[in-house]
Specification:
It contains ten helices and no strands. By secondary structure, it is mainly alpha-helical. The protein has two domains: 100 residues; 68 residues, Arc Repressor Mutant, subunit A (Orthogonal Bundle). 21% of the residues are buried. This is Sigma-70 family RNA polymerase sigma factor. InterPro entries: RNA_pol_sigma-70_dom, RNA_pol_sigma_r3/r4-like.
Length: 188
């Protein structure tokens, strides 16, 4: 069977069985766009992509693939992997940066975490947005995540504070997950 046709379960089973072909496919091909995203958005292009691949591989393979065993199929494998990878590399970056204010870093982490939710399912999200009952929530997700409007300008347009906008955004993401048939949880 062509690896491109593998289901999430087949990929996870192959990884847990230490199938080198599946592992290589997953880290080098399937996660390629994710590594480019992390390289550009977390490390500003100042790190080698091969180093990112090695770091994530070692992290996920540690303790007989303990992290991979935590995947519970409530989302797509790539969505879950995106969240795990972004959090892992954000932590790595925090360890490397000592002088950056935590407030600025937290805002960057929130934006990256929100964007990663849509890496593998942008079409699903667009369809689900149309089904969302709360028009305000739909507007916030479309502006912040799909159109990448600056939170400050959206908050000003909506005549609310940026903190309130982030709270609305969090609730909007939960409603979106419910519309998409996923359990109510938030990775932010």
């Amino acid at each position: 069977m062509d690896l491109e046709q593998y289901t999430d379960k087949q990929i996870v089973d192959g990884i847990l069985a230490n199938n080198k072909v599946v592992i290589e496919y997953f880290f080098l091909k399937k996660c390629s766009a994710l590594f480019i995203y992390i390289l550009q958005n977390i490390f500003d292009g100042n790190i080698d992509k091969k180093e990112l691949i090695s770091e994530l591989y070692l992290y996920m393979a540690d303790q007989d693939w303990y992290k991979v065993r935590q995947f519970d199929y409530r989302s797509k494998l790539m969505t879950w992997t995106s969240v795990v990878a972004v959090r892992f590399f954000q932590k790595k970056k925090r360890e490397l940066i000592e002088n950056k204010s935590s407030e600025t870093l937290n805002k960057e982490m929130d934006k990256i975490a929100n964007v990663t939710m849509f890496i593998d399912c942008k079409m699903d999200v667009c369809n689900a947005l149309k089904k969302m009952p709360n028009e305000r929530y739909r507007k916030v997700i479309e502006a912040l995540d799909l159109k990448e409007v600056h939170p400050e300008s959206l908050a000003e347009e909506m005549k609310i504070t940026v903190d309130n906008l982030y709270n609305i955004h969090r609730r909007a993401l939960m409603q979106l997950k419910n519309v998409m048939g996923r359990k109510e949880e938030y990775y932010g």
